[in-house]
Each structure stands twice: as structure tokens, then as C-alpha cells.
Design goal:
- The protein is an alpha/beta fold and about 280 residues long.
- It has two domains: about 110 residues, Dihydroxyacetone kinase, domain 1 (Rossmann fold), CATH 3.40.50; about 120 residues, Hypothetical Protein Tm841, Chain: A,domain 3.
- It has ten helices and 15 strands.
- The strands form four sheets. The protein has a six-stranded mixed beta sheet with strand order 12-11-10-15-13-14, sandwiched between helices.
- The two termini are about 35 Å apart.
- The relative contact order is 0.16.
- One of its GO terms (molecular function) is lipid binding.
- InterPro entries: DegV, DegV_C, DegV_domain_contain.
- This is EDD domain protein, DegV family.
């Protein structure tokens, strides 16, 4: 059996007519924990975290969670969020080694995207398309390496509260961003970490800066995937701005699930594109 698997930060459980098996991450505070599955109430979680003043953090899927996702597969394709911010990739690798001890004839490809969210979705789409075209496991393994070098991720965040509570950014800086109504424009670095690029105020300026950074990275009209945190209006507006420049774009917009909502926070958008 062929299986396509991802951790829950990919934000999707189906691509076209193909099911994606999910290994869920968790979001923790000292008081609560949230499993990033289909039952998670994103709105309630965001409200709670906004009011929460102490440390919050995330936890990668357990080895058992990965093994459950692998179960029954003999050709398995796994896409994970960045190893630069999470132990998710390493956890999947441990599960792979255990699974292969019991199923030595199976083949398992694990792709560390050095990214998250919509860039993971692009990778899943690529792998599924290649498999539907009849390509071999070995061909797909080589092709994913090349494809990773041709995709990029960008974001615009209205709040850095959770990143500050998680220890990723300075709390004073995060507080100032919120008070000044500034959006932080950034990207996923080559090491798979969060890399701020610029600050911007106003929707038009945010769109302009995002498009500028995308074109600097080599974007010329490839696929675009946009996820948003309770901000479909902004995501749709950005999509329209892109289509004014590239009328025949393949764009998909969808809401973020738990893990991406935790980092991007309410009103944030995350964009992945082929460059």
C-alpha cells in the first residue's frame, strides 16, 4: 500500500482525491494542551493564548503516532515541518527505523521541508502528482530534493505574542509590534528558522513588500498556496494583487489549522510559491 503522510502543520488531510495521513503535534501551556487534529477549536485556542501571559510551547508527534500512520504501508512518503524549529523530522526518522526493522521490504521517504504549512502542501502535491504519473520511489526521492530548492515560504504576521511566549523572539519587540499595529514580513531561512525581513503598515504596503520579496526570490508565476488565520479577506486580497501581475496563476487559499495558527496567530497569512 502507498501512503502519503505529514505532520499536522501541513494544514490539510486531503489533496484533491488523495488522503493524507496525519501525525498530530500538540500546543501546550502550563494549564492546557491542544491536540492539533480535526476536532481542535482554532478560534477558542487563539482567544485563550492571546490572554495567556506565561510560557507556551509545542510538542512534536510521538514515535507511536508516526508508527500508527505508517501502519500497513509498504511505500511511504512523509513530509515534515522544519527540523530547524521542531523535533518532528527526527521523531519521524526514529519511527522509520523501527518500522523498517519489522517491515524490511518497505520503502520510506522522509522529507524535511525546512519550512511549514503551505510549503509542505506544495511538496505533498508534487509527490502525489509524481506517483500518479507512475514514477518510481527512487525517482521521487531524487525529484523532491530538486523541488525543495525551487519553493519558498513567506509570511505576514500581525502579532508575535506566541513566538515571544515560546522564546522565539524578544518579548519587548513583540509588545511593540502589537501596539504599533505593524505587520512583520518574513521568510523561512535556509536553515529552516524564522527570518524577519521587514516591517510594514497598511494592507497595500504589506502586499507590495510580499510581492517584492517573492519576485526577488525568483517567483515568476508558479504555484501559490496561501493559508490564513481567520483572515480570508486579506488572503483573498493578496491573491487578487498577485493575479493582477500574473493572471494565470494556480492559487489555493485555505484556513490554517492548529500549529500554523499558533505561530502565525490571528490575522496572519503564510504564503508558499514555486520560484
Amino acid at each position: 500500500m502507498i501512503k502519503f503522510i505529514a505532520d499536522s502543520s501541513c494544514d490539510t488531510r486531503k489533496i484533491n482525491d488523495t488522503d493524507i495521513n496525519i501525525a498530530s503535534l500538540r500546543i501546550y501551556t502550563e494549564e492546557r494542551d491542544y491536540l492539533d487534529d480535526e476536532n481542535l477549536d482554532i478560534h477558542e485556542m487563539l482567544d485563550y493564548l492571546l490572554a495567556y501571559k506565561d510560557r507556551s510551547f509545542t510538542a512534536c508527534p510521538s514515535t507511536e503516532s508516526w508508527l500508527n500512520a505508517f501502519d500497513g504501508g509498504d511505500e511511504i512518503y512523509v513530509v515534515t515541518m522544519t527540523s530547524g524549529l521542531s523535533g518532528t523530522y527526527n521523531s519521524a526518522c526514529v519511527a522509520r527505523d523501527l518500522y523498517l526493522e519489522e517491515h524490511p521490504d518497505s520503502k520510506i521517504l522522509i522529507v524535511d521541508t525546512l519550512s511549514t504549512g503551505p510549503e509542505m502542501r506544495l511538496m505533498l502535491e508534487k509527490i502525489i502528482d509524481l506517483k500518479k504519473a507512475g514514477k518510481s520511489f527512487e525517482f521521487i526521492e531524487n525529484e523532491t530534493k530538486a523541488y525543495l530548492s525551487s519553493t519558498r515560504l513567506f509570511f505576514a504576521f500581525k502579532s508575535l505574542h506566541n513566538l515571544a511566549q515560546n522564546g522565539r523572539v524578544n518579548k519587548i519587540v513583540a509588545s511593540l509590534i502589537g501596539k504599533l499595529n505593524i505587520s512583520i514580513i518574513g521568510t523561512a531561512s535556509k536553515e529552516g528558522t524564522i527570518e524577519p525581513i521587514a516591517k510594514s503598515r497598511g494592507v497595500k504596503n504589506v502586499f507590495s513588500k510580499l510581492i517584492e520579496e517573492m519576485t526577488k526570490a525568483g517567483f515568476a508565476g508558479g504555484k501559490v498556496r496561501i493559508c490564513h488565520v481567520e483572515n480570508e479577506e486579506l488572503a483573498s486580497g493578496f491573491s487578487a494583487a498577485l493575479k493582477n501581475l500574473f493572471p494565470n496563476l494556480d492559487i489555493n487559499i485555505y484556513p490554517a489549522r492548529g500549529l500554523v495558527s499558533y505561530y502565525a496567530e490571528r490575522y496572519g497569512i503564510v504564503i508558499a510559491c514555486e520560484c
